[in-house]
Amino acid sequence: MVDIKRPLRDRVPAAGAAESFDGRYTGTLSCPAFPGQTPLRTNISVTVAESTATYEREILRPGTAAGVPTGVYERGRGPVSPSGEIILTGACSGEFSCTAEYRGDLNVTPIRLTGTQRWRFRGGDRERACEVALVRRKP
Predict the structure, then answer these.
(1) Which of 73, 94, 113, 117 could lock 132 by a disulfide, CB 3.0 to 4.6 Å apart?
(2) Is 130 a residue whose pLDDT tops 60?
């Protein structure tokens, strides 16, 4: 909330103040293949607003070379620190069962997040390390 009783000069961030990470980021999520499947490489989007990030990526049909979209999504959220550190935790919806965590630093170029996906299959649980490469989009 803005204190309208304070002079405007006191309400405007000073030069050199912490950078705002608010905005939209897009990029690629890459993970190695599970047995019998192809490696995952798919689009991901991250939105940061007021120190909170949300993300979304469509789940692709397992075992398809072209990555057939399913209409089902992995979504999550997490904090963004004033210095740009980001931690995202999420889960899959619909017919898929997974949890995920990705972390990194929005203040470093190129922006790279690393993380882990944990999937539940009929034949047992599997885990894999993944990487997210992001680019900040112009408003």
Answers:
(1) 113
(2) yes
